[in-house]
């Protein structure tokens, strides 16, 4: 963690992640440029500029698809979690690819337009009243604006300044943006193409986003139905040392119940930094350590050790018939709670 | 064409206001509300596009922080419900969009196969 902002936080893992990603994008574009030409039919040959435009457009679509799949995949299977950690760089690169696509559109289709290019794009087709021949460009423009906003607000400063919930809400615009991209493709290219391969791959990609979200939703549903003022968690010895049990609270939030030797404490599962899953981290030197970027919080009060100032809410705990129970209501961030003392758990 | 012009005009005005907000906020306001920003200047140019794009939100947060009535508890309320609903919306929207567009397509599944209206013989006799 840091107490100062830096332009970009990079570490070896992120370098690798970004390098692999950029290599994949380059490979995709190159392959598409080589294979894209024959896909056009004789009556309507696609020339270089159109193929380049489609290469970047489809690339941005597949990247966005991947971004939207990572979330539910990580909820369904923890092995996908590492992919989640650097999603912001993924998003920024996607925005760059999408902007490249739109630049090709403007410079090709409207290159000789007497009016300014942007104006020509917006004014070329205004049949908003009909579905067939609907100006699908509008969907693309909307998605592009959203991607630009998300990329431009991906720096840590924004998270801290807007607060994680507001930032997160802003970034949830990725959902409507994806729907808009799907509309952009189905009302545009898909109305016209004679290439069933693209239609099939496109449909499969978009439907898997829908399918994965449905699956993750059903999985979470069961956990949301538990209610009560005190919620049973587990027996102390069932939580492995310096690890946590994540509990879904009735209000939809999550708490992380940690065991550090014979001490048990609970904090909100959402890290103060980027709402990372604290409960998937471990206790290091008596501090709960976030698995995402390593922010630390003391077990007994949810405060970061000085000089840091971050705080997370804590929860009251009690022991009932040998089972840990957690209070349904969270305490204010940084409220001290004496950890439960369970000497027997540490001997197991 | 006219509405396109108006739209672009509005966009330009928005961007200019954003630029003004960016200059004032990054040059002056930021130091007063965010301790982590103190003395670090390198990251500020990176924030300019963000401020330009969402300046109304920036102004709102700025005044909340300046009046120091930020509710700390809120920082830990991730919008889980909103996220769930958005996800469900997507689950519905994607199949509807795809199915709808396929039905709409002029040579889609509902289109009758093409038939030749004149036989070859007729064509030649017409000449
Ligand atoms: S340290 Fe970044 S989310 Fe926890």
Task: Show the helix and strand layout.
The complex is a heterodimer of chains A (348) and B (127).
Chain A: H1 12-39, H2 48-76, H3 81-84, H4 87-109, H5 117-124, H6 137-152, H7 156-162, H8 164-171, H9 174-187, H10 189-192, H11 196-224, E1 230-234, E2 244-248, E3 254-260, E4 263-268, E5 282-284, E6 287-289, E7 296-298, E8 314-315, E9 317-320, E10 323-327, E11 340-341, H12 343-347
Chain B: H1 2-33, H2 44-53, H3 55-66, H4 80-104, H5 120-126
Helix pairs in contact in B: 1-2, 1-3
Bound molecules: FE2/S2 (inorganic) cluster.
Assembly status: heterodimer
In angstroms, what is the radius of gyration of chain A? 25 Å
Q: Could you tell me the strand content of chain A as a percent range?
A: 5-15%
Bound molecules: FE2/S2 (inorganic) cluster
The portion of residues assigned to helices of chain B is 55-70%
Into which percentage range does the β-strand content of chain B fall?
under 5%
Question: What is the count of β-strands of chain A?
Answer: 11
Structural class of chain B: mainly alpha
In N-to-C order, the SSE pattern of chain A is HHHHHHHHHHHEEEEEEEEEEEH
Would you write up a description of this structure?
The complex is a heterodimer of chains A (348) and B (127). By secondary structure, chain A is of the alpha+beta class. Chain A has two domains: 12-223; 230-347, Rieske Iron-sulfur Protein, CATH 2.102.10.10. Helix content of chain A is 50%, strand content 13%. In chain A, strands 2, 3, 4, 8 and 11 form a five-stranded antiparallel β-sheet that branches. The two termini of chain A are 34 Å apart. Chain B is mostly helical and 127 residues long. The two termini of chain B are 46 Å apart. The chains are: A alpha+beta (348), B mainly alpha (127). The interface between A and B is large, with 71 and 58 residues.
